[in-house]
Automatic annotation (TrEMBL):
It comes from Chlorogloeopsis fritschii PCC 6912. This is Guanylate kinase. It holds the Pfam family Guanylate_kin. The gene is gmk. Belongs to the guanylate kinase family. Coiled coil: none annotated. It is an enzyme of class 2 (transferase). Essential for recycling GMP and indirectly, cGMP. Keywords: ATP-binding, Cytoplasm, Kinase, Nucleotide-binding, Transferase.
Amino acid sequence: MMQVLSSKSGANTKECPSPGKLIVLTGPSGVGKGTLLRSLLQRHPELYYSVSATTRSPRPGEVDGKDYYFISRSKFEQLVAAGKFLEWAEFAGNYYGTPSEPVIDQICSGKLVVLEIELEGARQIRRSFPSALSIFILPPSFNELEKRIRSRGQDSQEAIARRLQRAQEEINAANEFDIQIVNDDFETALNSIEAVLFG
């Protein structure tokens, strides 16, 4: 069946003979989405991970083009104006966004494409790509999430307070998503995601 895929801006429109699927992974900061995704990609190299663009500085060990595309604010704003993102949002003072062209290309080639994005971006994807499958990763409890965020040791008290307030708002939105998975036991959570994707 021929399907026409396009981003909301219409900047990228393609006819796809046998489209793949867009998978959105979201959840509060510190819940372990990144770690789950890395393990998922190791086990399933056939998945396509869409690298996001950001204006934040690289963290130790992060590689440009692999973890994120690290770009300036002005460059990011130019891309937004040109309709080059599937979704974008400002989070903790930095922009994050998903370049649309590679995602649409990969879905058109029949791939399962995985995005790991924040709540606001995930909501934009639901509006622009209603056929996307959305998975929300929950912490076992709010106290456990607070412990994980504090143990990172890379944020000021003020930043931690902001992250926790935002995390509570995000957790309250979990029921907007197709599937909720609690990351209590890592292996169990990973198996649950696999069961959803490969059933």
